[in-house]
Recover the amino acids of this structure.
C-alpha cells in the first residue's frame, strides 16, 4: 500500500484554507439580502474578503481549525491501521505548517499536545468499508464556538409544545437557533438528526453536514421541513455575527434515523459560516480533491 | 469610523456608542479561558498562591492592561520553533465563556475594553458602565484578515497554557471591530435577542 500521507496533508490544507464553492456562493447571495451600510452586511463583506485572502495565501480561514473529523470509505483489503497512522502523521505535519492550530487539550491536566494528536478520538476518524474501488475521504473541520451552541432535545418538550413529529422538530430547531444567537458565528448551517440514541443522533447530525448546501433531500417531507426551518430561522433576525439582519442561517439538512420506542431525540449540530469540508478520492494511486 | 489608539482614555471610550465601527492601533494582549481564570484565581480572589513566573508576568502586563484591551483570541502562530513569531490566523473566540470573570478583570486592571465575538452578559455590561469600557466585536472567523493587522508579536507569556491560551502581546494597526456594548448600558446583543425572542414566540404559535 502506497503512503498517502502527502495526500492527506493536501486534503487538510485545502479544507482549512479554501472554503468550498457552494458555501461561498451562499455567502455571496446573502450579502445582497442585507441592508447597505448595516453592520451585518459589513460583516459578510469582511468574511468574503477573508475567504479570498485565506485561499490566496494558504492560511487558515478561521484560527479555530476545529476538531478534524475524517470519514474514510475504503475498498476491501485496505489496512485501517495504516490509514490511521498516515492521517495522524498528516495532521501533525499540517499543524507544524500552521494549516491547523494545535487544538488537542488533555482534559485533566489542561496540557495542549502541541501537534493535534490526542487519544484515539482525536483526531476523529470513522472507517467504513465500501464496494467502490476508490478510497474516498471526507474531512470536516468543526470549530469549537459553533460546537458549543449545538443542542439535543428529547421530545416531547412541554416548554416548546414540541411533540414527536416533524412539527416538534421544527420547534426544536428554531429554539436552538434562537438560543445560539450570534455565538456560533452566524450565518450558520444546521445539521439535524431525528432519532437514534444520544450518541448516534449527534453523529448523524454531523453526517448531514457533509451534504452540498444546494442539494435536495430525496424525502419530500424532509425537503419541505429543511426549507421551512431555513426560512423561519431567518425570520428570527439574528443576522450575520448576531448583529441583526436577514441571514441567520444558510441552510438546514435533516436526516431521520431509527430510534427506540421510548426515545425521540432531535440533535442539532450548528456549523459556523466557515463551513470547512472537503473530499478526497484516491483511484489507481492518484488523489483528486473536491 | 472611529480611529482609536491604545491605551485609550476614558473620555474617548465614553464617546463610543453601540454600532460605531472602529479601527484600533497600538499594543494589545490576547487572553481567553485559561488567562481569565488565572487572573481571577491568582490576583483578584487570591485563592491560588502565585507560582513560577506569575508575579513577574503580572507586573509586566499591568501597564499594558491599564487603559488597554484584552483580545479574546487563540491564534495560529508560525515561528514556534525559532521564537520568531508571526500571527497567521487570529480571529476572535466566543466571549461569553469569560462572563464569570470579565467584570472583575476589567475593574481590577483598569481595562478600557475587551475584543471578542458573540457579546457578553449583564455583569460585563455593568462593569463597562462603571469603569468606562466597551465591548468591541470583531468578525468571527475572519482570521486571516485580522492577522494582517498584527504587525508585530512583541512577546508571549504563559506559553505553557498552550498556543491558543497563552498571552500574546501584539502591535496592531487598524484592527477592525464594531462597538456592540457601550459604557452607557447599551447592548446590541440584548436588542437582537429581544427581537429574536418575540419573533420565535410568533413562529411557535404557527403550526
Amino acid at each position: 500500500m502506497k503512503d498517502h500521507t502527502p495526500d492527506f496533508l493536501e486534503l487538510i490544507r485545502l479544507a482549512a484554507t479554501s472554503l468550498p464553492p457552494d458555501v461561498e456562493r451562499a455567502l455571496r447571495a446573502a450579502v445582497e439580502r442585507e441592508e447597505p451600510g448595516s453592520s451585518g452586511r459589513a460583516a459578510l463583506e469582511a468574511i468574503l474578503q477573508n475567504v479570498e485572502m485565506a485561499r490566496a495565501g494558504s492560511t487558515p480561514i478561521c484560527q479555530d481549525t476545529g476538531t478534524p473529523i475524517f470519514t474514510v470509505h475504503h475498498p476491501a483489503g485496505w489496512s485501517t491501521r495504516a490509514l490511521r497512522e498516515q492521517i495522524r502523521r498528516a495532521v501533525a505535519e499540517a499543524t507544524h505548517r500552521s494549516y491547523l492550530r494545535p487544538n488537542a487539550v488533555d482534559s485533566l491536566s489542561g496540557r495542549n499536545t502541541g501537534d493535534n494528536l490526542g487519544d484515539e478520538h482525536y483526531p476523529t476518524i470513522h472507517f467504513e468499508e465500501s464496494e467502490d474501488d476508490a478510497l474516498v475521504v471526507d474531512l470536516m473541520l468543526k470549530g469549537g464556538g459553533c460546537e458549543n451552541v449545538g443542542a439535543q432535545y428529547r421530545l416531547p418538550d412541554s416548554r416548546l409544545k414540541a411533540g414527536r413529529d416533524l412539527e416538534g422538530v421544527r420547534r426544536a430547531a428554531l429554539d436552538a437557533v434562537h438560543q445560539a444567537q450570534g455565538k456560533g458565528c452566524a450565518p450558520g448551517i444546521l445539521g439535524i438528526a431525528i432519532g437514534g440514541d444520544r450518541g448516534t443522533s449527534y453523529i448523524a447530525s454531523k453526517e448531514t453536514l457533509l451534504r452540498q448546501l444546494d442539494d435536495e433531500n430525496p424525502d419530500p417531507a424532509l425537503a419541505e421541513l429543511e426549507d421551512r426551518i431555513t426560512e423561519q430561522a431567518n425570520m428570527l433576525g439574528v443576522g450575520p455575527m448576531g448583529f441583526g439582519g436577514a441571514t441567520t442561517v444558510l441552510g438546514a439538512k435533516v436526516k431521520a434515523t431509527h430510534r427506540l420506542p421510548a426515545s425521540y431525540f432531535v440533535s442539532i449540530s450548528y456549523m459556523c459560516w466557515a463551513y470547512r469540508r472537503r473530499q478526497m478520492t484516491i483511484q489507481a494511486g492518484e488523489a483528486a480533491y473536491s | 469610523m472611529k480611529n482609536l489608539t491604545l491605551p485609550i482614555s476614558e473620555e474617548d471610550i465614553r464617546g463610543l456608542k453601540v454600532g460605531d465601527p472602529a479601527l484600533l492601533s497600538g499594543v494589545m494582549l490576547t487572553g481567553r479561558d485559561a488567562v481569565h481564570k488565572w487572573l481571577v484565581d491568582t490576583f483578584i480572589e487570591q485563592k491560588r498562591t502565585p507560582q513560577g513566573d506569575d508575579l513577574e508576568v503580572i507586573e509586566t502586563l499591568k501597564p499594558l492592561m491599564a487603559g488597554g484591551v484584552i483580545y479574546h483570541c487563540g491564534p495560529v502562530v508560525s515561528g514556534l520553533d525559532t521564537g520568531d513569531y508571526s500571527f497567521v490566523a487570529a480571529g476572535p473566540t466566543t466571549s461569553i465563556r469569560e462572563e464569570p470573570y470579565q467584570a472583575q478583570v476589567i475593574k481590577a486592571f483598569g481595562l478600557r475594553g475587551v475584543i471578542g465575538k458573540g457579546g457578553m452578559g449583564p455583569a460585563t455590561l455593568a462593569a463597562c458602565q462603571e469603569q468606562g469600557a466597551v465591548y468591541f466585536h470583531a468578525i468571527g472567523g475572519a482570521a486571516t484578515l485580522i492577522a494582517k493587522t498584527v504587525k508585530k508579536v512583541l512577546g508571549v507569556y504563559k506559553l505553557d497554557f498552550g498556543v491558543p491560551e497563552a498571552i500574546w502581546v501584539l502591535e496592531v494597526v487598524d484592527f477592525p471591530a464594531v462597538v456592540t456594548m457601550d459604557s452607557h448600558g447599551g447592548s446590541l446583543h440584548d436588542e437582537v435577542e429581544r427581537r429574536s425572542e418575540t419573533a420565535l414566540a410568533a413562529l411557535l404559535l404557527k403550526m
